[in-house]
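Section 5: illustrative case.
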């Protein structure tokens, strides 16, 4: 194990019955460890191997599992821990949608409620260029109508 960068991946081997935690060398893409389960204990033997070989971990990628966070903090406290894009984007989408729904429920002006309704994907879009002029105008009206969207 010469690399100092690794990522974890948890997979279900049989639909919800058997989980494996896979550690991948981010430089080579090679699997360097497979542990049973999806908790921090699935990485215990991996950390023993890292310590035995004197490897200094600089970067770790994983999902936002509390077990993985704990395991990395405990065993590689100086490593940079990067969370996977899928879970970060999911949290952002959920937060934006929560705010949008909250504003819609609190809004008493029916025109403003109609303006907000059905705009989830518009608010989450990273590219306004794909919208036509009417949609762009609606988007800007939504932002102008409520400062919580800005």
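Designed sequence:
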């Amino acid at each position: 194990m010469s690399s100092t960068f690794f990522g974890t991946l948890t997979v279900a081997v049989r639909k919800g019955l058997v989980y494996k935690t896979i550690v991948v060398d981010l430089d080579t893409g090679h699997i360097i460890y497979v542990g049973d389960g999806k908790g921090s204990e699935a990485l215990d033997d991996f950390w023993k191997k890292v310590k035995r070989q004197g490897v200094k971990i600089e970067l770790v990628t994983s999902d936002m599992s509390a077990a993985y966070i704990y395991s990395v903090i405990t065993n590689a406290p100086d490593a940079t821990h990067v969370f996977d894009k899928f879970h970060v984007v999911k949290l952002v989408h959920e937060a934006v949608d929560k705010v949008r729904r909250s504003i819609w429920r609190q809004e008493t002006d029916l025109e403003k409620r109609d303006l907000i309704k059905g705009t989830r994907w518009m608010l989450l879009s990273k590219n306004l260029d794909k919208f036509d002029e009417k949609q762009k105008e609606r988007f800007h009206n939504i932002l102008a109508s409520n400062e919580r969207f800005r």
